[in-house]
Amino acid sequence: MSKGLKLSTLIVGDAQADRVVPPTGFTARLTLFAAGAMAFLTVFALALSLASGRLATRWGEELAQSSTLRISAPAEQMAAQTAAALTVLESTPGIATARALSVDEQRRLLVPWFGPDLPLDSLPVPQLIEIVETEGGYDGAGLRLRLQAEVPGAVLDDHTRWRRPLERAAGRLRLLGWVSIGLIGAATAAMITLAANAALAANSQVISVLRLIGARDSYIARAFVRRFTLRALLGAAVGTALGALSVFLLPATQESGGFLTGLGFHGLGWALLTLIPVLAAVVAYVATGAAARRTLGELT
Q1: Of 152, 187, 210, which marks where a domain is finished?
Q2: Under 8 Å CB-to-CB from 197, ≥6 apart: which residues?
């Protein structure tokens, strides 16, 4: 039967064979709806996976090239230790810039946690120094030894403990997106198989008559495979278009908007959407062909 299911035959079709499969009815609506709904969900799963990949890359790049130095010292020694720390940092290879945060900048960092009325002047808040690394980075172990000797109250944070969990979480979200796409494909195959089985069972008498007049199983199966493949292609195309429109209408990426505002497609990501209807058609082709072989074998 596989020789009878050629691509050219699938595209051109056979008017007589197409009459075997009812053009309308429950199976047609089920196939169109299943393919459309699954394609719609696939668009969002793909958007989630791509956005997670971009998020992991951005987090890694932003945190990998920045560090923070925290200085805890009595108020009368804070200025001297800050100056000593800046001197050490400015002479360290691999550090592009080092800047002590102002009181207003530190207050803005603490506002989300303690509110806008935090009295920093009356609290022993450490002095923070922002460090921007060069592309090659610096020797963290060596810098910690120098700071320990010259600025005892300084603690260097290279953001490793923050970066790795964030990158791991984003990577798992990306994996979840691809797993979701796989499950959606499996569910689509199952629903199309059920629809094809129902159509084959409903036309069992027609199939018997076709066999009596000499029709081969490959000829009969071709009609079912072509009709269900084209239905899946049409339904998936509509579902993909609606999903792409929904993603397009989401808020644009913003610096302060977080992850959800970046849920979308960029550049070649939009081109990947064209593969969804094609993959849905391939799934329908394989699922219907397997169902037809099994059902025609049982009707023998």
Answers
A1: 152
A2: 291, 295
Question: Residues 289, 294, 298, 300: is their CA dihedral positive or negative?
Answer: positive
DSSP state at residue 125? P
Number of compact structural domains in the chain: 2
Question: Helices 217-248 and 26-64 sit at what angle, rounded to 10 degrees?
Answer: 50
Range 55-80 average pLDDT = 76
For residue 159, being part of any structural domain is answered with no
Residue that is last in its domain, among 152, 177, 197: 152
171 within a domain of the structure (yes/no): yes
Domain interval for residue 109: 73-152
**Whether residues 178 and 120 fall in one domain:** no
User: In angstroms, rounded to a whole number, what is the distance separating the alpha carbons of residues 232 and 228?
Assistant: 6
Decide if 202 is inside a domain: yes
Tell me the percentage of the chain whose pLDDT exceeds 70.
78
User: pTM, whole model, 2 decimals?
Assistant: 0.64
185-237 confidence digits (pLDDT tens): 899 888 888 888 887 777 777 777 777 877 777 777 777 788 888 889 999 99
Helices (H), the chain: 7-12, 15-18, 26-64, 75-90, 103-114, 140-150, 160-202, 204-212, 217-248, 269-272, 275-298
In sequence order, which residues have a C-beta less than 8 Å from that of residue 27 and are 6 or more positions away?
195, 196, 198, 199, 202
Per-residue pLDDT of 244-298, as tens digits, reads: 998 888 766 554 444 444 677 777 778 889 999 999 999 888 888 888 888 777 7
Residue 138 DSSP label: -
Mark whether 45 and 93 lie in a shared domain: no
